[in-house]
User: Fold these one by one.
Assistant:
Number 1:
Amino acid sequence: MDISVTDFKARCLDVIRKVEKSRKAVTIRRRGKVVARLEPAQAGSEEQKPWEQLRALGGSVHAAPGESVVEDEAFKAQR
């Protein structure tokens, strides 16, 4: 579904409810150009930690919790 910025401003709560219910994204346009996209939230995304979301998408974390992937010398060089 496409909607103009003006229409979105006037009906934003209705549009959000529609996206939530239909699970379909809405493209928001200004003068015909896409300026934003409202998409339904992924199920359970608020409950997952960022690294869990990364793993769920097929990514990997290369450091243990509390461990930095950047060496101490690199931090010192930035100061």
Number 2:
Amino acid sequence: MPQFSDIFRLKKKSLVRGTGLALASLWISFRVSGFPNTHFSLGLVLVFLLACAATWDTARCLQKRWSFYHGGVLLLLYVDLMILLMISFFLLAPFSRSLL
């Protein structure tokens, strides 16, 4: 049975750690980009890399055979991909204003 301290051990697989990192990186990206008046910030690149690490951590939890657990992990991976797209939008949106 997993314990609470397993969240902090990087060698162990943890859905809570991956999902928590992804949601935290989304919240940080909102704060760093200055949403709704987005501006470019190099800090967003670090947040994007943190979200990539969270997606990788979630993907480690996939199993070889399909089960409802496997399906739940796939849903969380789709959520992580949407978070990555949102952060990349925050990265690229300030450059679209300079083209107009």
